[in-house]
Amino acid sequence: MSLTPSPFESFIRRVPKIELHVHLEGSVQPATLRELARGKKRPDLDVEQWVLAREATGYRYAAFMDFVEAFKFVALLLETPEDYALATTRMMEQLAAQKLRYAEVTLSAGVILWKKQSLEPIFEAVLEAAQAAERRLGLRVNWIFDAVRQFGTDHAREVVEWAGRYQSRGVVAFGIGGDEARGPAELFPEVFRRARDLGLHTVAHAGETVGPESIRRSVEMLAAERIGHGLTAFQDPEVLAMLRDRAVPLEVCLTSNVATGLLKRIEDHPLRQMLEAPLVVTLHSDDPALFDTTLQEEFQRAANCFSLSRQELTELCLAAARSAFLSAHDRQRLLAEIQSAATLG
Ligand SMILES: [Zn+2]
Fold it and tell me: Of 283, 286, 285, 264, which Cα lies nearest the Cα of 272?
């Protein structure tokens, strides 16, 4: 096996990439989990056994709820503000190493509240760690506070208020994730309205584990500005047309959809049809440590499985820059940087 990357691989490594769909908790690598477990009295959270179980299945989950349990395991190891700061620093190092220039990182604020932890010291520690890493690594991050949809509307409202409080300090959006079936979009119009009234952007995981109706409701009833996954859009031509006409970006996460058992193979993903529709498509890693992937690998897989050209890969990066919750000035700078890397050859 050659250790020299092909020109195509070099291009993927070099082009400035943007993450719009990555969870902090899902970015905690086994080495960091071991660091977090050190000195804790949590015999119920056996990291070695957990890592062995992940390796045995190749970071694939028999059912979506098994993945939710794995996410919960990581979240339970994040006990203190220092733990969250460590996770933030490590995540940013991993992102910067892949030539990422900008990321909107989802923090499960809802899970922190569920754990009955105090959000304020935790997010202050996260911000401090992120700012130090930004200076050191040349990577900028903003934050999305995420509520657990099956915990209901009161819970989601609390997350919105926290997001509003931190708006001037890097929280750009509010979102919902979790079990779409037990927390359908139609429960949350008021919550999303409140988020918008506070000046926040809004996003929603939708059409991941349930059908296209969830995507329609997330766009029409919640006015979500970006849709996480949108995998089932193709089951309903009307939903597809709506996404196309309104140019709602879909945050595609290929390995994630296979790892959580929604698709058998990456080749089964409708990425090619989405691009040809044409929908606004961006490419992301979701929970890279829980799926044993990176954004760079997602680009490589997209290129291999769907024969994407260099121009199409560049377009995925440009679409992410256009869909980012940035000022026009900052967006323009990112677009120019991607374009200049793409024309370098
Ligand atoms: Zn996600």
Answer: 283
Question: Which percentage of the chain shows pLDDT scores above 90?
Answer: 91
Distance 207 CA to ligand 1 centre (A): 12
Condensed to tens digits (0 to 9), the pLDDT of residues 168-208 reads: 999 999 999 999 999 999 999 999 999 999 999 999 999 98
| Tens of pLDDT, residues 211-230 | 999 999 999 999 999 999 99
State residue 343's pLDDT score: 86
Cα angle: 66, vertex 58, 96; to 5 degrees: 95
- Residues lying with their CB under 5 A of ligand 1, a single-atom ion: 286
Assign residue 148 the CATH number of its domain: 3.20.20.140
Residue 48 lies inside a defined structural domain of this protein: yes
**235 within some domain:** yes
Q: pTM for the complete prediction?
A: 0.96
Amino acid at residue number 345? G
Flag whether 3 is in a domain: no
148 half-sphere exposure, CB direction, 13 A CA radius: 15
| Domain membership of residue 189 as a residue range | 8-343
**Predicted local confidence at residue 339, as pLDDT:** 94
How many domains does the chain fold into? 1
Residue 82 has a pLDDT of 97
Q: How far is the CA of 176 from the centre of ligand 1 (A)?
A: 9
pLDDT, average across residues 97-107 = 96
C-alpha–C-alpha distance, residues 200 and 4, integer Å: 44
DSSP strands (E only) in the chain: 17-23, 100-107, 140-148, 171-177, 201-206, 226-229, 250-252, 281-283
Cα–Cα distance measured from residue 125 to residue 118, given in angstroms and rounded to the nearest whole number: 12
Active site residues: 208
| 94, two tokens | 């991993």
Res. 1 pLDDT band, cuts 50 70 90: very low
- Between the CA of 316 and the centroid of ligand 1 the distance, in Å, is 18
The residue to which tokens 């970015």 are assigned: 27
Q: Rounding to the nearest 10 degrees, give the CA dihedral for residues 329, 335, 341, 345.
A: -140
Q: Is 158 within the bounds of a domain?
A: yes
Give dist(CA 39, CA 42) in Å, integer: 9
